[in-house]
Amino acid sequence: MTEVRDSPHAWVAEHIRRFEETGGRPRPGVNDLLLTTRGRRTGNLRRTALVYERDKDRYVVAASNRGADRHPAWYINLLADPAVVVQVGRQTFAARARPATAVERPHLWRLMVSAMPEYAAYEERTTREIPVVLLTRG
Question: Could you give the C-alpha distances from 33 to 54, 82, 129, in angstroms and in order?
Fold first, then answer.
């Protein structure tokens, strides 16, 4: 089995550690998942922790990068290889990732901001449009 490397960002690594220690138990009022992507240059598996919401049978996440002017590495990785692994609670499954279309994004962005109001501040902080990503089982 290929080794999975956790995010090099200390705050994300801490979030992953807390997720694992609690068996993925949600934080009060926040849904968290772990997303594993394949590095576009190295081929290494990379894991990050993200806030999610549900839209029907899909999981929705935002590539906010805390409002930085560049996309997070996990987002660029899934553009190169949309086959990802998702862990919600104790359940792990294969999924396909894709950015929301221009038509889908407004509704999904509002959904994400309602889940985590800080996203609105991140949006104001950056010049890029923050991608919203759909994760579908399979």
Answer: 11, 17, 22
CATH value at residue 71: 2.30.110.10
Mean pLDDT, range 99-105, rounded to an integer: 98
Structural domain of 119: 4-137
Q: What is the pTM of this model?
A: 0.93
Nearest CA to 33 among 3, 57, 14, 53?
53
Contact 32, 47 (CB under 8 A): no
For the chain, the domain total comes to: 1
Alpha helices in 4-138 (DSSP H): 10-21, 73-80, 105-115, 118-125
Q: Number of C-alpha atoms within 13 angstroms, CB side, residue 24?
A: 16
Helix (H), strand (E) at residue 91: strand 91-99
pLDDT at 1 over 60: no
Which residues is 54 bridged to in the sheet? 59
Say if residue 19's pLDDT is above 70.
yes
